[in-house]
């Protein structure tokens, strides 16, 4: 393994609001790689310059940073300049995937279903937003993950406060129509050349008001169903939708596409997570496990993508 991969940096932590989750994911990846004999080392770009990756002789990077800086193309661009192979999506796909507004505009242009949404600002007519989207409404920052800054608004009077909370994390804020079906996520592996493979979808049933930060990473009462309970034909159809969505942003390597259904079972794309969580509560390992792939095998399969063209 040491000869195959060389010296591997597990790039985790970073400066974003999702630092804590990234460290949990990164330590899981680090342990898995070491358990398979890979010469893997933790590397936190919040504590040292990225240039150390070259000066310290790393051969490739397993990127497990979450949120801005690590998942938005910034680090990917730096590694491209260094000529250092890395896991996951490239600069463009990372940037688009992190940007909920632009990814949705792209999907809409291709005829792929997304929930109805509105942009909010200080001058928004809150009553008009409610009249258009109905209640409840999800209010979320455009560029952030792990449900940070998201509010579920049940009355118009609470919209200004929800906007202010989301605005703490990004200057662009979305209001999104509530969908009263299920909440799901589907992992995807591969690229346009080798082909995309989806893993079994996971249905998420939080005990909280919605699937918030605590429900995602720390609560033990969130229910995850994998198999997700959808009919096999419907899940296969959604898998094709997920492949189209990932292809549209220029995705490669691995990702997780989140979607919701309405009461009639129609799926709507929410967002692409191009550096998904790999914690004990994370969804990609659940889908992989259902497909017969254990956590270390999944990590190695992702790392193998850095060998292409080597």
Question: How would you describe what is shown here?
Answer:
The chain is α+β, with helices and mostly antiparallel strands. The protein folds into three domains: 2-88, Rossmann fold; 96-113 and 180-307, D-amino Acid Aminotransferase, Chain A, domain 1, CATH 3.30.470; 117-177, ATP-grasp fold, A domain (Dna Ligase, domain 1), CATH 3.30.1490.20. It is 35% helix and 22% strand. The protein is built from twelve helices and 13 strands. Strands 8, 9, 10, 11, 12 and 13 form a six-stranded antiparallel beta sheet that branches. Strands 4-7-5-6 form a four-stranded antiparallel beta sheet. Helix 2 (19-35) crosses helix 12. It starts with a helix and ends in a 6-residue tail after the last helix. The model has no long low-confidence stretch (mean pLDDT 92).
CATH homologous superfamily annotation of the largest domain: ATP-grasp fold, B domain
Structural class estimated from helices and strands:
alpha+beta
**Oligomeric state of shown chains:** single chain
Radius of gyration: 19 Å
Instruction: Tell me the CATH topology of the largest domain.
Output: D-amino Acid Aminotransferase, Chain A, domain 1
Strand content: 15-25%
Going by CATH, the architecture of the largest domain would be: 2-Layer Sandwich
SSE string, helices as H and strands as E: HEHEHEHHHEHEEHEEEEHEHEEHH
Query: Which parts are unreliable, with pLDDT below 50 for 5 consecutive residues or more?
Result: none
CATH class descriptor of the largest domain: Alpha Beta
Instruction: Report the principal-axis shape.
Output: globular
What's the number of structural domains?
Answer: 3
What is the helical fraction, as a range of percent?
25-40%
Please report the distance between the alpha carbons of the first and last residues: 15 Å
Counted by DSSP, the helix tally is 12
Q: What's the number of extended β-strand segments? A: 13
